[in-house]
Amino acid sequence: MDRLMNFFVSPVLKWALLVLAVVFPLISDNEYHIYVMATAFIWAIAVYGMNIITGYCGQLNLAHGGFFAIGAYVVAILTVDHGWAFWPAFIAAGLAGAIFGFLVGVVSLRLKEHYFAIFTLCVGFIIYLLLEKWEALTHGSLGIINIAPPEGFGFVDFTETVPFYYLVLAFLVLSVWLVSRLSRSLLGRTFLAIRISDDLAQSLGINLMRNKVLAFVLSTVYAASAGALYAGVVRFIGPAEADVVHTFDMITYLLVGGIGTLMGPLLGTLAITWLTQMLQSLEEYRMIIFGPMLVILVIFFPRGIVGGFLTWRGRRLANKASQQDQGGESQASTQTSGTPGADKQEAGNNA
């Protein structure tokens, strides 16, 4: 059991998941499954962005799906209406996510807790209305079609499913690596201090507003970049991409995987995506099964799959350390007490 536990928390697991992801297109004979996995990776990138602002910094952003849609629309508008290539449009999408994230964050992060969540929910709805009603810019409810795909190089053609899968996988690996570095840095510890208590963080000399805005901007850049990749693979988007349903989907992925953990966003996104695929045959009845399963998971694993495992591991290690301390203390007391005869003999010798 200890070896199994050490495997799940060791870097070997991350390398094992990476190897499985690399060989997945080679062992799968269904192109649709590869496409589903690629889109799951895209959503996972967006969920990692939500994990920065919600899991590490403790601010529930309900406009995250709106920033995902902003990234997708920037790529769509620039490539279709202005003839840009995909990669310059992709960079512009990330910059747009940072700019809009900064503007919204400066205003919304003056609020706390549920007031902040309600404000961002309104922001998400405003983004949805703008995408639907501003027909001159966004093409309205008809959406935008024929979005340019990522340009390949040499013999690599990203219009094909397998090359695009590896492209998205590369972006996902980069995203996870950046979040990993962030979580171990001083900035990441600052975010965690803000999540625990604003007053405590401020007493330590932390600039709350600056760090909250920075976390918000980082999260919106992740969301916009994921939206840009999504537009490149789907080639059609509409105002529905900004629907608040997508935000709640990402919250579900985060809660199931483990909020505030490194591997939680990925595992939660993959688990829910493939569970949804398996229940597609039930059509409208699948939520009767899917809903109670989520309720049971939240009740028995409130910290998600990864968070629950880490909690169990921490308790197990604490109990093991406590038992070792008790054993060491009893052994030490036995050695120091000795036998009564030996004590008397030692006293006589001293006399």
From TrEMBL:
Topology of the protein relative to the lipid bilayer: Multi-pass membrane protein
Bias-annotated ranges (Polar residues): 320-339
Coiled-coil residue windows: none
Transmembrane region(s): 7-27, 33-53, 60-80, 86-107, 114-131, 163-180, 213-238, 250-275, 287-312
Annotated compartments: Cell inner membrane
Domain of life: Bacteria
Presence of the UniProt keyword Metal-binding in the record: no
Pfam family name, one: BPD_transp_2
UniProt keyword annotations, A-Z: Cell membrane, Membrane, Transmembrane, Transmembrane helix
Keyword Membrane in annotation: yes
Residue span of region Disordered: 320-351
PANTHER family named among the record's database cross-references: HIGH-AFFINITY BRANCHED-CHAIN AMINO ACID TRANSPORT PROTEIN BRAE, HIGH-AFFINITY BRANCHED-CHAIN AMINO ACID TRANSPORT SYSTEM PERMEASE
Protein name: ABC transporter permease
Organism in which the protein naturally occurs: Alcanivorax xiamenensis
